[in-house]
Every structure is written in C-alpha cells, then in structure tokens.
Amino acid sequence: MRKNIVAGNWKMNKSLQEGIALARELNEALKGKTVHCKVIIGTPYIHLSSAVSSVDTDRIGVAAQNCADKESGAYTGEVSASMIASTGARYVILGHSERRAYYHETPEILKEKVKLALTAGLTPIFCIGEVLEERESGKHFDTVKSQIEASLFDLSPEDFAKLILAYEPVWAIGTGRTASPAQAQEMHAFIRRTLAAKYGEEIADNTSILYGGSANAGNAKELFSNPDVDGGLIGGASLSADKFMPIIEAF
Ligand code: PEP
Predict the structure, then answer these.
(1) How far does the centroid of ligand 1 lie from the alpha carbon of residue 213, in Å?
(2) Cβ(47)–Cβ(86) below 8 Å
(3) Which of 34, 79, 182, 191 has the most other CB atoms within 10 Å of its CB?
(4) pTM summary value
(5) Model confidence over 154-201: pLDDT tens digits?
C-alpha cells in the first residue's frame, strides 16, 4: 500500500544552527503524537548529518535536495549520492523545477542522478510539473508524461517501485497560487495511469505521488483528501514548525 508523505523542502534557507533548531522542534512536536503520514525534511547538504542526529529518523526522514550526476572524482563543489547516504539521510529530492530552470538539469542528467541515488540506497523524490504556458495551452499532460518517460522509464520495475513522485506545477511554486484540488487530482490520476501503462497497476497503485506548490495549513486537507494525492512537498510552509505541523496533521 502506498504511503502518505509530507516532505519539507527548505531550499537555500537557514543557517546550520537555525536548521538544527527547526529539526529538534519538529522532533519534539511529533513525539508521542500519532500522525497518519511519513514526515521528511529536505535540508541543505551541510545540515544533513546534524539533522539526522537531531531527530528520531523513524519519525522524521532526512532528504538532500540534489546530488551529483557522477559517482566520485574531480568534480569540485559536487556532492555524490553515496556521500549523502553516508550522513544517514535516506532521501533525495531530484528534478525540482528550480534545478531544471536555474542549473539546466536535463532529463538525461536527471536520469543519471536517479540511478546513482538508487545505487546509493537513497529514495528519490522525483519532481515533475509544467510551466504556466504549457498549462494554458493544454500541454500540461504531455509535458509531465515526457518528463517521466525521459528520466524514469528505463528503470526496472523493481527500481521504479522505490521512487516517490512529486507533481509540482511550476506556476504554483512559491507563488501563493495553488492548483485546485480538482486540478491536482486530475493530474495525479493521469500520472498514475501513465505509470500503470508502463509498469502495471500494482506498481502504479503503490507509488506515492505528492503535490507541491503553495500548499499550506489552509489548503492541505482539501488537497490530501483526493484519492490520488498522497501528500505534499512543501517549500515555504516547511520553514517553521508552526506552519509545517498543521500540514502533517491534515492527514
Ligand atoms: C517547492 O519548492 O517544492 C514548493 C512546493 O514550494 P512552495 O511550497 O513554497 O510553493
């Protein structure tokens, strides 16, 4: 059965001290509470190791926000998937629209990153989503399908089954403009049908598909109540426990 997941993406925010304080605060807030989803925090690289030791990782998983497309070697400034795994982090966000747009990450590069992440034992949270012009011209389904096909469809069924997907319409990220629950459900159901056509119903049914894009305490419940929306990837509202906890508790 697929899991409900609420994952935070801190992006390039918080000093090490601020990040650890937030990780500890979330850990405390979740202690002794029954929540109906897996919680993940996506921190900058430098926070990973300390975040892992600041939380109960059975309760809060820790994710990197990127990894290198090379295994190791002379790639100054890069951080490999196996280095991330060595911190105790178990997840990595890949294909975020900010990485695609600002750092020119192509489907081929992302394909490599996904493979290296899986080899290192990390669970990729793979992001897909259309820009506004694509939605307005009715190309959003084609865009999302081709993003999935180009980076993920040469994975074996066993490897594909390890992924988490996140549908993040680019026009909704950080804009305060959320996809309506109906728009999210329509796209998530389309993604699940696309997965079923390639990998079969069982894998499609068991894949968690998160929604991302200006999700917050006020809209999470309605978004998560859709049958194909299995949680959220949360940017701005993951930066404080006060805003993040109600999203976790929306399940
Ligand atoms: C994100 O960047 O993954 C995201 C969903 O951001 P926000 O929630 O701030 O729109």
Answers:
(1) 5
(2) no
(3) 191
(4) 0.98
(5) 999 999 999 999 999 999 999 989 999 999 999 999 999 999 999 999
Q: How far apart are CA 95 and CA 147, in angstroms?
A: 9
User: So where are the chain's domains?
Assistant: 5-248
Calpha distance 55→115 (Å, rounded): 28
What separation in Å is there between the alpha carbon of 73 and the centre of ligand 1?
A: 32
pLDDT tens, position by position, 164-176: 999 999 999 999 8
Q: At a CB cut-off of 8 Å and minimum separation 6, what does 186 contact?
A: none
For residue 68, the CA-to-ligand 1 centroid distance in Å is 22
Gap between the Cα atoms of 95 and 247, Å rounded: 23
Does 133 participate in catalysis according to the annotation?
no
Overall CATH class of domain 5-248: alpha beta
Does the CB atom of residue 173 touch ligand 1 within 6 A?
yes
Ligand 1 atom nearest to CA at 234: 8
Burial class (CB in 10 A: 0-12, 13-18, 19+), 87: buried
- Out of 96, 98, 130, 188, which one is annotated catalytic? 96
